[in-house]
Every structure is written in C-alpha cells, then in structure tokens.
C-alpha cells in the first residue's frame, strides 16, 4: 500500500502547540541516501535489541579524519588511550563530532560533506560517530535507544577530556535523530561542550519527549529547522527547542525542493555551506507569525559556521538560494 509523504502546511508550529502535535500512525521516513521507508509509529519495540543497546551504550564507532588523513579514517576506541595516541588526533585543534540519522552510517552523504567543509577552513579533528547498530533498527526502537547511545558518546568525550581535551574545543553536530543523540551527549558532559548543533531535529515521537535536544546541552546550542510543517507535520520537530533556532525560508519548505526529504536534508547542506563560507545570516524574530510573514527585523546572527565561541538567543529567519552555496 502506498502511503504518501507527510504533507506540509505553510504555518510553522507554535511552541505552545508542540505537546499536542500528532502524527498519523504510518508515515514515510528517508534513510541516509533519501530512499523512503514506511514507518509504523505504533510498532512494538524490539526489547531484546534495545536492552543490548542500553546495556552497552558506549559501543559506537568513532572514525577520525584530519588534514593528515582527510579520506582514510583512523578508529578511536573509548578507554583505549593507545588508540588515541597512535592516531593523528591533535588535542590543540578543534574537535567536531558528526552524528548521522536513521538508517544511516559513517559513509552516508552528510558525513563527507561536513568533514570536507571543515578541512577547507582549518585543521580540525573531525570524528564521524557511526551508531549504525541502533540506527539500522526500526524507527521506534531506534528512537527509544537514542538517549542511551548519546550518553555513550558523552562518555567518550569525557574520556578524551580526561586525556587533556578541553570541553571548549568540542562541537557536536547531529542530523535528524542524530540531533537528539548529540543533545544527550552534551548533557552527559554536564552541558560543558562549547557547541551543540541540531540539523532539522527529528519530529516523530519527539514532540513530548524530555530527552530531545534542549538548550542546556552545551554552552551554546543551535537548531536549524528546514522541514517543520504543522498539522500532519514535516520530518523535523519544527519549533524552537534550543538557545538559537534558525528557520531558513520559514522552516517549512526550501527553495528548489518538492519533497520532505529534500527539505529535511537541506539542513545539513546549509550547515556544510556555512562552515565553508559563513555567509548565512538570520534576523531575530519576535514571534512565529513574523517567521511566517518574513517580517523579522531584529538583531542579526550567523547561522551554522565553525565558531566555537558563538553566542546567541532567540528565533531567527533568513532566506537562501536554491543551489549551493545557497
């Protein structure tokens, strides 16, 4: 049976409506390469698989890239100092962790795009977080395990900190389900990491969850919303949940996109472009209505970028082009 992609409305989600937002039982969600999969949001959780994840939340894979090894990963292992010291990891350089979304892995398109954008800017430790052992499970089970896997990532960051990595050198970046994962990772460090960035944080089953990304997960927490339609809803959560929340083109649909998948993926595409060029600037908005009407005239703040000392609060709207670098 064909189940249509989620319809979107031109009205953004009002924060007070977030708790009552509902999705139909069956929706379509994309994997990391944009292929659609039917998701039953009432499917039973795979309790045995989830229990294994909860018992061993640290079993992510961590693949390090630097300018010395820009395309050939080195594997880092939690609580194994030898794996760190034998690698090209440089404690003096910024560290960016990138977490993919559902049905994805380290090779998924967003990872090399963000990695390469960083290397064009500076010599950075880019660590791709491969959490495929959970991400490849059905959506409901994966969603339930995300907080624990995020805590596992936080434990890895704490391990690196014990070896001399300053928390203020760390930026956590996650896409879709990965947004909530990195939020939980930042929480595990006591909110001490410099930055947490959620790229169109996933909406289904997260609207009333206390374990979603939130503004206290890092010193500065940002969310970029690109597919947050209300009523049935988009794939993203669609409302302000961070310290600074950006709504490119209103946060509902993106120029050149005809599907939710395109809108959803545009979040990481915009972020990668912003790391390279730091050219996307939003104006602060006083209300969701201003976001919709494109009448935001408040203070300006750059969206995305690689600035570890970035600060800002509020909702921001900006308009972009339909093609890279947007």
TrEMBL record:
It is found in: Secreted. Pfam families: Lipase. The keyword Disulfide bond applies. One of its GO terms (biological process) is lipid catabolic process. GO terms for molecular function: serine hydrolase activity; triacylglycerol lipase activity. Keywords: Disulfide bond, Secreted. Belongs to the AB hydrolase superfamily. Lipase family. This is Pancreatic triacylglycerol lipase. It comes from Eumeta variegata. The gene is Pnlip.
């Amino acid at each position: 049976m064909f189940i249509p992609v989620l319809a979107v409305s031109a009205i953004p989600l009002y924060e007070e409506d977030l708790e009552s937002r509902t999705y139909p039982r069956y929706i379509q969600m994309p994997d990391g390469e944009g292929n659609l999969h039917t998701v039953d949001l009432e499917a039973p959780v795979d309790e045995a698989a989830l229990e294994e994840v909860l018992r061993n939340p640290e079993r992510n894979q961590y693949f390090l890239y630097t300018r010395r090894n820009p395309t050939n990963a080195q594997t880092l292992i939690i609580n194994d100092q030898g794996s760190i010291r034998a690698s090209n990891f440089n404690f003096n350089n910024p560290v960016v962790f990138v977490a993919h979304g559902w049905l994805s892995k380290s090779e998924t398109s967003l990872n090399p795009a963000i990695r390469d954008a960083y290397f064009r800017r500076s010599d950075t430790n880019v660590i791709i977080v491969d959490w495929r052992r959970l991400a490849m499970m059905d959506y409901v089970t994966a969603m339930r395990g995300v907080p624990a896997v995020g805590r596992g990532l936080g434990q890895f960051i704490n391990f690196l900190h014990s070896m001399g990595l300053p928390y203020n050198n760390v930026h956590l970046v996650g896409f879709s389900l990965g947004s909530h994962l990195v939020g939980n990772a930042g929480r595990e460090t006591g909110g001490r990491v410099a930055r947490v960035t959620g790229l169109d944080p996933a909406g289904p089953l997260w609207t009333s969850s206390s374990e979603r990304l939130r503004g206290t997960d890092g010193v500065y927490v940002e969310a970029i919303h690109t597919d947050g339609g209300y009523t049935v809803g988009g794939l993203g959560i669609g409302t302000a949940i961070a310290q600074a929340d950006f709504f490119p083109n209103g946060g509902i649909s993106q120029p050149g996109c005809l599907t939710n998948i395109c809108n959803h993926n545009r979040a990481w595409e915009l972020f990668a472009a912003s790391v390279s060029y730091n050219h996307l600037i939003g104006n602060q908005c006083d209300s969701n209505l201003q976001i919709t009407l494109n009448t935001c005239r408040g203070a300006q703040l750059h969206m995305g970028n690689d600035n570890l000392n970035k600060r800002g609060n509020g909702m921001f709207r900006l308009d972009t082009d339909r093609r890279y670098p947007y």
